[in-house]
Every structure is written in C-alpha cells, then in structure tokens.
C-alpha cells in the first residue's frame, strides 16, 4: 500500500522514540531549547486528600506510575456508577497526581513551561504549592509557565488535581486522569512563543509553491537585533529552502516575523502520497543560537466547490469519512499510538479517507498520524455551547461562556500546521436556539476567532435538524463556510439543490443504503462522515457498555457493514458472504457456515457484498448460478438448502475473476491461532502489538459459536496491557489476563518492557491446544 511509506513511519516512530529516550534526565539542559517528556514516575491517588498541592505533602504511599494514564478504565463496570450510560458505567471521581523533579542550578535564568496535551478533567495544577491554573475542558492542551515558581538546584513538586466527580458529564466515555503526554519545555530569554510557528502554503502547483512562515518571537532579554532563520527540509532530510529575516526587538517585545519562500517542484501532500516537509526555525541574537524548533507541515491546496464538492491539489475527491470518539477500546482514553495506527490501516483498507474528531480535539500524535498516513480531518471543538444535552447534565454547557474563547484558541493554535486538517467544526448538534440574534452571534464569534487565528480552514457546524431549527431559511446557513448537517441526508441534498451556491457536507451520517445512495448520487455533497468508524465506550444502555455504531467493533473485528461499506467505498476488488443466522432468513447476519441450530436450519439466505460486476456462488463445488451486482447497491441475494461443507463466492469484473470468499463448516474448536499486528516492537509506551486470537478446528476453520475463557500470559521482556473481545455487553475487566471469546475471537494488547530481547505471548483455554507467539524487541 502506498500510504505505508517507509519514511513516514520511520519518522513517526523516531519522533516518538526521541521524545521518549530523553525521559528522566532533567539535568541535561545544554541546548537552547529542551523539550523533555514529563511522563515518567508520577504518584497517583484516587482520592482527594487535604493539602496534596503542597510541596511538603507526603505522597510516599501513593501508587507510582507513568502517564498517559486513565484510571477510569481500570475500574469495574457497575450499573450504579454515576457516569451512567454516557460513561459506559465506569467509575469517576477525584484523583491526584504528583511528581518531584529537579532542575540544575545552572538553569537559573532559563524560561520553563509545562505542557499537558489533555487533562481529564476540571484540572487544577500546582507547582510547589502555587496554583498555576484551573481548566474545565479535558480535551485541550494546557501550558503553564513555571519559571518564577521554580527552585533551581532543589526539588520541585508538580501536583495535579482532576475532578470528575460531577456526573454525568459527557454523552460518551471520557476517561479520567493525565491521559495524554506531558512535556517540560526549557528556553532562553529570546524564544519562539508556544505554538508560535504557523506555516501555510498560499499558492500551490505541481511546478512551485509559496510557503509562508509566521514566527512569533518574544524577547525578554535586552533590546537586540533578532534574526529568524527558516530552513525547509523535505522528507529525505534535504534542505530545499533557507531564508533569514532580522529586526530589532525591544525588551519584552513580541513580534511576528513573516517570510514567504518559494519551493520548486514541491512534493504535494495527498492521500496516497502524504509527503511531509519540516520547517526548522532558528532564532539568533548576536551570533548566538537562542532557540530552535521543528514544525512538520505539508504542501497542498484544497477548496470546496458548491457544485462538485471537495478538491485537493485540483483533484475532485469525495470525502468518505467516519466520526471517531477518542477512546481506544480496552485501553480507555490513554491510547498507545500503535492502536490508532492499526485502526487507521483497517479504515483505509475499506476505503475511508476522512476522520471527524467527534466531538472534541484529539491528541497531537493522533493528528500527526493522520498527516503521515494520509487522512483528511474535521477538527471539532465542542458538543455543546450553552444549551445542555441529555445524559450530560454536568457537561461543557456550564463552561462555554467562560472558556470557549481560550479553548478555541488553544485548539486552533496547537493544530493549525497539520496538513490533514481541512475544516474546523465549532459544534455538534448544538441545541442553542439558532433562530435568534444570540444564536447568530454565538456562531459568528467562534467563526471569526478561528478565521483570525487560521485564515486557511473553512468553518462549519454539524447542524441538528436544520429545517426544524429554521437555519436553512433564516440566513444562518449563509454564515457558514461549509454547511454541515447531521443525518436526514435527503434534506441536505434538497438544500443543496435549492441553494446552488452553498457548499455542503454531511457531518454525521447513518450506515444505511438510503444514506449511501444520497452520497453516491449527489456530487454537490462533498462527503459523508459515518457514525462511527469504530465502536466506542459509553452511549449505551446497561447491560451494554458500548453501542453497535461502528464499522468495526471495539477490538477491531469486522461486522457485516464493514464489508458492505468496502463494497461501496473501496476500489480494491472484494467479495464477502454473509448468511442470516437462522432458518428461512431469520436473525442477524453472520459470516460462517456453521449454524448453531443444525437440526432446524435448512434454508439458508445469503447476502453477498461485492464491488465486482457479478458473483457466482458454489455450494460444495456445485454452481448455484451467477448474479449481477444490483444498481441500487443492495447485496446480491441467494437462497439454498444448507448442507455442511463449503460455500464459495467468486466475483468477476469484465469476465475476469477478481475476488473469492469461501466459508466452511467448522467442527468443534481444538486449537488457538494467534496473529499479532506486529511481531517486532520497540520499548516505548506508544508501541504495542494487538494479538488477535481465534478458536479454530483441526483444519484451521474458525469455530464461531463458542464463548471460551482464555488465559493470557506474557513471559520475557514484555507485558500484557489489556484484553478484549469486542462484546458490547461484557462486564469483564480489560485490565486482567483472562477473557472469554466472542464469536470465537478475542485480542490481547502487549508491549515490550526492555530495550532488547523478546517476549512470548501464551494463550491457553480448557480443551484447547495452547498457542504461543514470539515478539522480538528492536531499536
Ligand atoms: C448523534 C450525535 C452523536 C451520537 C449519535 C448516536 O445525533 O451527534 O454524538 O450521539 O447521535 O446515534
């Protein structure tokens, strides 16, 4: 696959690794800018002890752990947990984290910041007992300057209180804790401001591109001539451009340097070839390098057209999107990047090219991965403005007035260099009245702020029942750069016909064939975003703890709609057989030839998904005939008398065989088969392998109907991170070494714990031949 480019992945893992490898040496401050991971060796307590912010407070009996950490996912599912259906019935409450650290005496005079990429939620952060700030929203990155409050050459204590006690606070699972990365940033007295580099590409063609770099420099030293150098390198590390600009900066002056550079024959960022560049910024004063940092970016152009939808680098591309929530299933809200990497591969394979971050900003590294793997991203800010929504009584509506501006600013400034981001949504199904002056104003203030901070992204809103809310009639839709609407696909198509100058897009859509046909038959609709790509935790009614919304389940297993969607959205030839589970077309769809009710099961009803012209079906080698793929995108259907053995679908296009799928009747399971997503890992929190487990008979055929308890054991230099089977009504813990199979399958997520060697994942189950797989540890 083209997106799986050696460079992109090596670069990403090198970034992750270099970030990780300088972990604990806070004394190594020789460089003019030092960015150190602050993830290791925190103390944690799930309690609210008095005085825990104080430097002298004793935390020696608190649990020692590394972040990212989500303590909610470690808890038990309980119907009485106050997070309720939104939070997947997992626990919430108050928790504290503390970390001691020292900076050398020689660092006195340096400027020091702490950056949390996300704190869930209602955080209060303290340094040496001094309150740095409070922040309600759990999804934004937070940076505090520490300089004044630090003791150089002595111990300092960072304390973080996170209050998730007011529940329900969300319509989906949020997690709880320091669930994203933390960094310590040390600079000199003249420096680039945090999020102070903004790279845009105002003119792009195959022949050349203009790269504009805006650099916010702060001079806290004496008045001096300050020089900013911008060095642009391509993905091979070759310098393609160098430019410098100088200016006198007074003491305490902040100034934005502006450079426009021309790149010849640029390698354009696209979905199939997501070429990245890096802008290396250097700040020089009197021959001394005062600061430096790297800003990855991509060279690409895009625009929306009212008649033809979305265009990237001049090419018309239909958006085939999914909405995602931020949890990673069994790992909760603290998601190792390799889990997203695997999920993205799966989504890409079935044709998905766009992601909506429902309904909040995601981790920085998630966006890096979208850049690297070639996805478009709709970056969304909020699920509510002032009006509340069901099942989230203590949600963001209580904070919107005080915080929307600072939160929006944080989101836009952190994320504006990602080439993957093509639009910003300022809300999901906002229930505020949009048919009065306040509704207009509330939209406009967000729209205008985003345009001021980032003039390159259109702004939208995921509208809720716009015809009922009158926003298609009252002038509101005209405020939006792109009219985004959730569901009611026909209404959006009609709105686009009635208003031929509107640029329109489905911001959230159902999986149904009716919705797909609207997408297929209306090129003016730039795209759809399915609810959702992957099952997420929460928004389900007990005994379920997650809902069946995804194309894939929580554990990454497929569903009928996975393949149906692939048949609609992918050009990779495919065919997939499903059958109705019970006799005479009763029951759900299953992809096995092993009915549970052998005695009564007689007439089998098949549904076959394909993107080929036609399919011929063979039952135990005998042809049942050939059928053409229907024009209306419905599945190809066959009915037959069931016999154990084999059912095979052969798909042909222009008479040529392009894909085959066969199901066989399984005998009882006798073996466990393991297939890890990676057989080599680096010793890094973000790198994990997902070991997929299947129960098969002696011929290797999946035995779908057994829920067998499996036991997982890791020996050697590795650890078991979590287990799952994707079952929505399972209340088994994720953080244990046992799991039942669901439809004969389960997963174990494993990680290395040393820099070299290997480890084994061993899986046993009663009456089954045990299985083992070796994972090696590389560099
Ligand atoms: C939508 C909403 C999503 C999710 C979905 C469930 O209306 O925007 O967040 O709740 O319904 O069907």
TrEMBL record:
Keywords: Glycosidase, Hydrolase, Signal
Oxidoreductase is among the record's keywords: no
A Pfam family it matches: Glyco_hydro_2_C
Domain Glycoside hydrolase family 2 immunoglobulin-like beta-sandwich, first and last residues per copy: 197-300
Residue intervals of the Glycoside hydrolase family 2 catalytic domain: 310-532
Domain Beta-mannosidase-like galactose-binding: 96-168
GO biological process: carbohydrate metabolic process
One MF term in the entry's GO annotations: hydrolase activity, hydrolyzing O-glycosyl compounds
Domain DUF4982 per the UniProt entry, residue ranges: 605-659
Signal peptide, first to last residue: 1-21
The organism's place on the tree of life at top rank: Bacteria
Glycoside hydrolase family domain: residues covered: 672-774
Record InterPro entries: Beta-gal/glucu_dom_sf, Beta-mannosidase-like_N2, DUF4982, Galactose-bd-like_sf, GH, GH2_Domain-Containing, Glyco_hydro2_dom5, Glyco_hydro_2
UniProt family annotation: Belongs to the glycosyl hydrolase 2 family.
Protein name as annotated: Beta-galactosidase
């Amino acid at each position: 696959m083209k997106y799986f480019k050696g460079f992109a992945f090596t670069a990403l893992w090198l970034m992750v690794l270099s970030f990780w490898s300088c972990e604990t040496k806070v004394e190594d401050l020789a460089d003019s800018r030092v960015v150190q991971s602050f993830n290791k060796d925190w103390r944690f307590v799930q309690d609210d002890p008095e005085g825990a912010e104080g430097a002298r407070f004793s935390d020696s009996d608190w649990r020692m752990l590394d972040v990212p950490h989500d303590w909610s996912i470690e808890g038990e599912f309980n119907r009485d947990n106050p997070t309720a259906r939104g939070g997947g019935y997992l626990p919430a409450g108050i928790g504290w984290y503390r970390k001691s650290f020292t900076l050398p005496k020689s660092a006195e005079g340096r400027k020091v910041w702490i950056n949390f990429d996300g704190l869930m939620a209602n955080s209060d952060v303290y340094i040496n007992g001094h309150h740095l700030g409070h922040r309600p929203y759990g999804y934004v990155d937070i940076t505090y300057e520490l300089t004044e409050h630090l003791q150089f050459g002595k111990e300092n204590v960072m304390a973080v209180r996170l209050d998730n006690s007011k529940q329900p606070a969300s319509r989906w699972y949020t997690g709880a804790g320091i669930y994203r990365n933390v960094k310590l940033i040390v600079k000199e007295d003249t420096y680039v401001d945090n999020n102070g580099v903004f790279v845009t590409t105002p003119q792009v063609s195959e022949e050349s591109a203009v790269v504009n770099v805006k650099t916010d420099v702060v001079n806290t030293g004496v008045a001096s001539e300050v020089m900013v150098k911008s060095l642009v390198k391509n993905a091979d590390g070759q310098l393609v451009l160098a430019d410098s600009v100088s200016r006198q900066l007074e003491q305490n002056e902040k100034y934005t340097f502006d450079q426009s550079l021309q790149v010849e024959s640029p390698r354009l960022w696209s979905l199939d070839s997501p070429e990245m560049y890096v802008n290396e910024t250097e700040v020089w004063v009197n021959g001394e390098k005062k600061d430096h940092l790297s800003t990855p970016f991509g060279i690409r152009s895009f625009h929306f057209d009212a008649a033809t939808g979305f265009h990237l680098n001049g090419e018309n591309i239909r958006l085939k999107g999914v909405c995602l929530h931020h949890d990673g299933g069994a790992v909760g809200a603290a998601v190792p990047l390799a889990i997203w990497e695997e999920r993205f591969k799966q989504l890409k394979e079935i044709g998905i090219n766009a992601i909506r971050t429902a309904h909040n900003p995601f981790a920085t590294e998630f966006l890096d991965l979208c850049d690297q793997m070639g996805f478009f991203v709709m970056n969304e800010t909020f699920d509510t403005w002032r009006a509340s929504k069901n099942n989230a009584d203590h949600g963001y509506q209580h904070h919107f007035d005080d915080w929307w501006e600072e939160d929006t600013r944080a989101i836009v400034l952190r994320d504006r260099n990602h080439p993957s981001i093509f639009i910003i949504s300022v809300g999901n199904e906002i229930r505020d009245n949009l048919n009065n002056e306040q509704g207009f104003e509330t939209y406009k203030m967000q729209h205008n702020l985003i345009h001021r901070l980032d003039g390159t992204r259109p702004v939208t809103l995921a509208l809720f029942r716009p015809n009922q809310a009158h926003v298609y009639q009252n002038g509101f839709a005209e405020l939006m750069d792109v009219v985004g609407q959730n569901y009611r696909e026909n209404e959006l198509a009609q709105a686009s016909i009635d208003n031929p100058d509107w640029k329109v897009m489905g911001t959230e859509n159902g999986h149904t064939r009716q919705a797909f046909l609207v997408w297929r038959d209306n090129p003016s609709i730039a795209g759809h975003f399915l609810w959702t790509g992957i099952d997420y935790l929460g928004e389900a009614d007990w005994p379920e703890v997650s809902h069946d919304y995804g194309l894939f389940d929580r554990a990454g297993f497929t569903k009928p709609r996975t393949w149906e969607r692939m048949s609609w959205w992918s050009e990779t030839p495919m065919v997939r057989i499903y059958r109705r589970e019970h006799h005479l077309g009763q029951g759900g769809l299953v992809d096995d030839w092993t009915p549970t009710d052998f005695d009564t099961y007689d007439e089998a009803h098949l549904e076959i998904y394909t993107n080929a012209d036609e399919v011929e079906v063979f039952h135990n080698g005998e042809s049942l005939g050939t059928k053409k793929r229907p024009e209306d995108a419905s599945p190809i259907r066959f009915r037959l008398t069931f016999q154990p053995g084999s059912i095979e679908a052969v798909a042909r296009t222009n008479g040529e065989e392009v894909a085959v799928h066969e199901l066989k009747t399984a005998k009882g399971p006798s073996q466990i088969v393991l297939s890890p997503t990676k057989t080599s890992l680096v010793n890094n929190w973000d790198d994990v392998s997902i070991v997929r487990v299947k129960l098969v008979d002696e011929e290797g055929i999946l035995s779908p109907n057994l829920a067998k308890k499996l036991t997982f054991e890791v020996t050697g230099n590795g650890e078991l991170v979590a287990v799952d089977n994707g079952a929505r009504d399972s209340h088994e813990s994720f953080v244990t070494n046992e799991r039942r199979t669901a439809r004969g399958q389960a997963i174990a997520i494993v990680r290395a714990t040393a820099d070299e060697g290997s480890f084994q994942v061993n899986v046993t189950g009663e009456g089954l031949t045990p299985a083992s797989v070796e994972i090696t540890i590389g560099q």
